[in-house]
């Protein structure tokens, strides 16, 4: 097992990465000295596979458990589902010292984290992420929340978990498309922060695609270390944390303008990162060799790097980019790469350069 610390003063916590961790959930929670009662929030897919193991482990350590199962999918990330969960917590009389276990992917983690942040003005919670995306990204860093009709993640709170348990065995049942989509975030960490990780991914991609345990342990732990390092320096995204959005300005616009659901998040940000690399060549002088390696790694991982754009979709995409939550004062700013492993945030790019690059990416 690998342990990564997230350094946030009295809100610091550990991320544990390894096989067989779900069976140790109860023992791990017991070490945290939380209350006796807990609610496990999961979705129907994950619950079917892992809820019994989670409940068994918690009961064996003396916890009284309540299971709350929400429908799987992004549609559950809304206030009506938050309310249902809160009602369940109240009905089962969870108290200030009781805690929540978020067992699932990013949808469950974001929603359950927000429920934990708001019930009785905040009770402890533990993340047990079961998708690759959730293990390397959404379970770490304390962003919780749900969507509104007006857009994604518009309601939420910064609220840190007490512990993150990444059980590598959970990834074995993840559908291939979901798994590969998570690799887009993994590759992102190499591009933004760590040329050595990037080279390791190039070398070990076949093993990674086979979900080889030791490779996954080392790669996931490194991604968590990077996210912890960034979040430790800038918890609430006043600066540096923005680098985690590499490829996301265009990626979010792709998700948004093509109707959510057509592209998985990782697929959209794969295209977004390749586009950002092309922009980086023009604006920051990213060497063409580096841009080529970035594109090739996504291709070899089986992720899309191009987007077919007819004039209507092109227009929609540009409009969506201007609506991005990260836009301030009407100006779209980009995270761009100087070389693999080093990026700069807040880069201004002229509208016509963005349009030109999108056209390059749609050939
Ligand atoms: N909080 C953050 O910092 C942050 C960062 C990135 C993304 N997110 C959010 O994360 C969400 C996406 O997360 P996701 O990609 O994990 O999606 P998800 O939670 O919807 O999971 C994807 C699918 O896989 C299923 N699943 C989960 N684990 C499984 C397993 N082990 N075996 C089989 N099936 C399994 C789920 O039921 C679901 O159908 C989005 O809502 C996004 O906004 C949050
Ligand atoms: Zn992302």
Can you walk through the features of this model?
Strands 1-2-9-6-5-3-4 form a 7-stranded mixed beta sheet, with helices on both faces. The chain has a two-stranded antiparallel ribbon with strand order 7-8. Strand 3, helix 2 (44-60) and strand 4 form a beta-alpha-beta unit. The model has no long low-confidence stretch (mean pLDDT 95). The chain is of the alpha/beta class. Helix 6 (176-193) packs antiparallel against helix 7 and helix 9 packs across helix 10. It contains 13 helices and 11 strands. Bound molecules: nicotinamide-adenine-dinucleotide and zinc ion.
Q: What's the mean pLDDT score?
A: 95
Strand content: 15-25%
Low-confidence stretches: none
**Number of discrete helical segments:** 13
Number of strands: 11
Radius of gyration: 20 Å
Q: How are the strands of the largest sheet arranged? A: 1-2-9-6-5-3-4
Q: What's the end-to-end separation, in Å?
A: 45 Å
How would a textbook summarize the main sheet? 7 strands, mixed
Shape: globular
Structure described in brief:
This protein is an alpha/beta fold and 363 residues long.
Protein topology:
Layout: E1 2-6, E2 13-18, H1 25-31, E3 37-43, H2 44-60, E4 64-70, H3 79-91, E5 99-104, H4 106-118, E6 125-129, H5 132-138, E7 143-148, E8 151-158, E9 163-167, H6 176-193, H7 195-209, H8 213-233, H9 248-257, H10 265-284, H11 288-301, H12 311-322, E10 333-339, E11 342-348, H13 351-361
Parallel strand pairs: 2-9, 3-4, 3-5, 5-6, 6-9
Antiparallel strand pairs: 1-2, 7-8, 10-11
Zinc ion is lined by residues 137, 185, 248, 265, 269.
